[in-house]
Amino acid sequence: MPASCPLCRAENETVLWQNSRLRVIAVNDTPAAPAFCRVIWREHVAEMTDLPAAARQEMMAAVWHTEAAMRRVLRPVKINLASFGNQVPHLHWHVIARFENDAFFPDSIWAAPRREAVPELPEGWQRQVAELLAAEA
Amino acid sequence: MPASCPLCRAENETVLWQNSRLRVIAVNDTPAAPAFCRVIWREHVAEMTDLPAAARQEMMAAVWHTEAAMRRVLRPVKINLASFGNQVPHLHWHVIARFENDAFFPDSIWAAPRREAVPELPEGWQRQVAELLAAEA
């Protein structure tokens, strides 16, 4: 657990679901992409192919549960999934619900924004996603 | 199979591996990100959670094989994985080998480039990846 890794520390997070191996959080620091969750493997591992097959499968099951819950609650036009880790090489998946009127659509949220519009999301969507994740577990 | 979907058509592709359900291609139209493969599900499906569990697992197995082969041949500093489909809602995974001196590092390849440098890649890396994928299949 490198002392410098922000994903090892897990401070100030909105945790939607967790077990001893991974956690699902709501990402609240990206106002232009407000419908954003992250699945974080607890152990400090860099790549999916560094994980044993069973762990890889557990990680992806959490990603699919998160995608399914976000689709059900948010009714997005598309889900975007990404595992980069260039800045923080600690395994984590971005799960992002996309809308035609969001700041970046149809580009990725890592492109330059096309507009200022921020989609209106259902009230309490993070709690609803957390409830669906708890029901799946 | 919508007539307008470019991923249904499969024209002018460098196929590295394929079976009846998916194909792995080398992406040659993004000069700033030259170490780039794509895993494409043949059926016109939009989201991973639209696939039955077994198909989802087969798709991801192809992604892990591609990641493992690219790591072995290219020795990148990081692998980036992404499934967006905002422009083409036909399931496909980007598998991108990243280098500290590539045009975007440590940002995603969808951000604005930071430099012009293009990493030197091993000669014939696509053929080597194809051979490893064939050996895994």
UniProtKB/TrEMBL annotation, chains A, B:
Gene3D superfamilies in the cross-refs: HIT-like
Name this protein carries in UniProt: HIT domain-containing protein
GO molecular function: catalytic activity
A Pfam short name: HIT
Residues in HIT domain copies: 3-105
Source taxon at top rank: Bacteria
Motif window: Histidine triad motif: 90-94
